[in-house]
Write a structure and sequence with these properties.
Elements: H1 17-30, H2 35-42, H3 46-58, E1 62-65, E2 68-71, H4 73-80, E3 84-87, E4 99-105, H5 115-124, E5 129-136, E6 139-142, E7 146-147, H6 153-161, E8 169-175, H7 178-192
Antiparallel strand pairs: 1-2, 3-4, 4-8, 5-6, 5-8, 6-7
C-alpha cells in the first residue's frame, strides 16, 4: 500500500510512507503529542516533520494546534483501516539484529506468497533481516518451512497471545536500532497491504 503518491519537484523528500505511518501510530497511541515529541518517535528533522504534518493536515487526518498534534476522527478511522499494529514479542530466536520489532498485519496471509520478498523489502528499508509468520487454521506457520508449534510451541502461543488470528501475518524485523526496526517493519507492513 502506498500512502504518499504526491509527486513534487524540487529537493528529494527526507520522509517516506513508513515515516507517515510512524507519525500516525504515535498519535493513535499517545493522543495529543507535540511536534518535537514526534521528532524522536519518527526519526525526522524538524523541517521534514513539518512537511509530514502538512500532508496529514491537508488530508484532514491531523489537527495541529499550539497544544500539540492529534488525529482527527477521519485520521483515526484511516489509521485503523491499515489493519496493522506494532507488537513486541521478542525475537524467539528468530530475529536478526540487536533490535527486533514485530508488525502484525490482519487478514493479509493471502498477500504473502513469497516470504523472501518480504525479507528483501525489510532489508531495502534498513533492516538486517526479517522472518514471516502466518496463521492458518489456528496454527502458526513459518512459510515455507511449516508449523512453528512443533519446534517452538511457547513462541507460537506468544504470537497468538499478541493478537495473531487466522489469516494474519506477523513479521519480525531485526535492525541495528529500535527506530530502524520500526521503520523497516512499517515499510514491510505497508508493502504487504
Amino acid at each position: 500500500m502506498e500512502i504518499l503518491n504526491v509527486k513534487k519537484f524540487g529537493p528529494l523528500a527526507r520522509y517516506s510512507d513508513p515515516h507517515l505511518f510512524l507519525t500516525m501510530d504515535a498519535l493513535y497511541r499517545d493522543g495529543r503529542v507535540g511536534r518535537k515529541g514526534l521528532l524522536g518517535e519518527v526519526g525526522l528533522g524538524e523541517g521534514s516533520m513539518r512537511s509530514v504534518l502538512a500532508i496529514l493536515r491537508d488530508w484532514r487526518w491531523v489537527d495541529v494546534r499550539q497544544t500539540g498534534v492529534m488525529l482527527t476522527d477521519l485520521g483515526r478511522t484511516s489509521f485503523a483501516g491499515f489493519n496493522m499494529t506494532f507488537v513486541d514479542v521478542g525475537d524467539g530466536g528468530y530475529g536478526v539484529g540487536p533490535c527486533t520489532k514485530g508488525i502484525l498485519v490482519k487478514g493479509a496471509s493471502a498477500d504473502v506468497t513469497n516470504p523472501m520478498a518480504v525479507r528483501d523489502t525489510a532489508i531495502r528499508n534498513g533492516a538486517k533481516g526479517a522472518v514471516v509468520f502466518v496463521m492458518d487454521g489456528g496454527r502458526v506457520t513459518l512459510p515455507p518451512h511449516g508449523d512453528v508449534y512443533q519446534p517452538d510451541p511457547e513462541f507460537a502461543e506468544t504470537l497468538k497471545h499478541h493478537g495473531m488470528g487466522d489469516g494474519d501475518v506477523l513479521v519480525l524485523v531485526g535492525a541495528s536500532s529500535p527506530l530502524a526496526a520500526r521503520l523497516a517493519a512499517a515499510a514491510v507492513g505497508l508493502a504487504i497491504r
